[in-house]
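stuck on this fold:
=====
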Amino acid sequence: MRGTKVFRYGFATFFAMMVVSLSACSTGQKHATAGKYVEDASITTRVKAAIFQQSDLDAAEIGVETCNGIVLLDGFVSQSAQISKATEIANAIEGVRAVKNSLAVKR
């Protein structure tokens, strides 16, 4: 019973830290200019469109978010090579400062 409580506490702590770290961008965007928000939305749209054009990538399985020019890719792909391809596609978009890739291969 004690092990289960420790596991739950550890998982809850980890989850809370992830939520806080991911929401940092949202909080920052409230204070950003309207122009920066529009620029990030434009980058997100262009990355999604570029991924959609790739027949070997399932755009419905790949999430894209942008904060201050940094693109976050998350979701699932069917092959590990697709992780690198999605990163390359995002990096090729004008205005992208960096790409954080959290894609995983479906098992």
Notes: Helices lie at 2-31, 34-52, 80-91.
